[in-house]
């Protein structure tokens, strides 16, 4: 049988794609199928699993007080971190786009927090937040105010973790900066010709042209912050009084600390469906505020 050039090209294409296809199959699809199967059992990892049908899912919504509290805390942290990070990164990128001395060095300084290992970052922040000897409380006390509990307070722990997340958004700053530099200069000049000032250029040109970048950063940041785990593991252990019991940490606690893998898998799937639904909602509503140059 004669092999044509198109068939050879197809064979080469599949050979080149095979590592990605195998990776998707063995690292994503098969594990997801496994999680779905385990979620219908009471498997502890130490004994034979027993099929319990939908009992795990029923318990999540009817008996598990920790799930609802964890879901609220996770959403609170995610939206707080995302909105604050987007605003902070956007305006920092605007400032870094100006003609200022040592602009390259300053840009690098803002990006450094993103590349520092997350655990090391959280350890350093734990020293800053220390109730007795932390730098923040030293400054607060020097100004005549009472010391803050920060990570030890139920009302202050999540805002304290949000501040760490905002500080680590160097990647968002870089993406915003690239988008700002690609705003067509002709549009800005047209505003100047019409007598517009800096605010007019920002409001009617920069922001509309940046909406696709804002959308991308918002979506990716939302997904990442909903899956927050390291701060709870490294700093708070879900405390105080479960005030930072994020969903991923709850899954970790159920699976690896309580050996309740079936229940942990059920929570994982519920969490997956929630993130997928939220992502779909964001995409569905994006047409109302996204602006593209061709429109």
TrEMBL record:
This is ABC transporter, permease protein. One of its GO terms (cellular component) is plasma membrane. Belongs to the binding-protein-dependent transport system permease family. The chain crosses the membrane at residues 12-40, 75-96, 108-128, 157-180, 261-283. GO terms for biological process: transmembrane transport. Pfam families: BPD_transp_1. SUPFAM superfamilies: MalF N-terminal region-like (SSF160964), MetI-like (SSF161098). InterPro entries: ABC_transporter_permease, MetI-like, MetI-like_sf. Residues 71-282 form the ABC transmembrane type-1 domain. It is a multi-pass membrane protein. It comes from Ruminiclostridium cellobioparum subsp. termitidis CT1112. CDD domains: TM_PBP2. It comes from the Bacteria. It is found in: Cell membrane. Keywords: Cell membrane, Membrane, Transmembrane, Transmembrane helix, Transport.
């Amino acid at each position: 049988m004669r092999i044509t050039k198109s068939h050879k090209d197809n064979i080469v294409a599949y050979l080149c794609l095979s590592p990605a296809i195998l990776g998707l199959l063995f690292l994503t699809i098969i594990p997801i199928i496994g999680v779905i199967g385990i979620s219908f059992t009471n498997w502890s990892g130490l004994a034979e699993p027993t099929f319990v049908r939908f009992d795990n899912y029923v318990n999540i919504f009817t008996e598990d007080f920790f799930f609802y509290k964890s879901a609220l805390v996770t959403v609170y942290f995610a939206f707080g971190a995302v909105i604050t990070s987007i605003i902070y990164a956007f305006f920092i990128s605007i400032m870094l786009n100006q003609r200022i001395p040592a602009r390259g060095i300053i840009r690098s300084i803002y990006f450094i927090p993103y590349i520092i290992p997350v655990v090391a970052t959280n350890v350093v922040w734990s020293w800053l937040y220390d109730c007795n000897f932390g730098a923040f409380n030293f400054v607060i006390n020097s100004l005549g105010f009472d010391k803050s509990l920060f990570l030890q307070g139920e009302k202050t722990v999540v805002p304290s973790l949000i501040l760490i997340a905002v500080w680590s958004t160097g990647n968002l700053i870089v993406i915003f900066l690239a988008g700002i530099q690609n705003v067509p200069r002709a549009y800005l000049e047209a505003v100047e010709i019409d007598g517009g000032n800096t605010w007019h250029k920002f409001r009617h040109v920069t922001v509309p042209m940046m909406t696709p970048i804002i959308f991308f950063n918002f979506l990716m940041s939302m997904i990442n912050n909903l899956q927050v785990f390291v701060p709870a593991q490294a700093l708070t252990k879900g405390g105080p009084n479960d005030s930072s019991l994020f969903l991923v940490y709850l899954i970790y606690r159920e699976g690896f600390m309580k050996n309740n893998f079936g229940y942990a898998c059920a929570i994982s799937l519920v969490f997956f469906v929630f993130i997928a639904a939220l992502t779909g909602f964001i995409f569905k509503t994006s047409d109302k505020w996204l602006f593209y140059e061709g429109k």
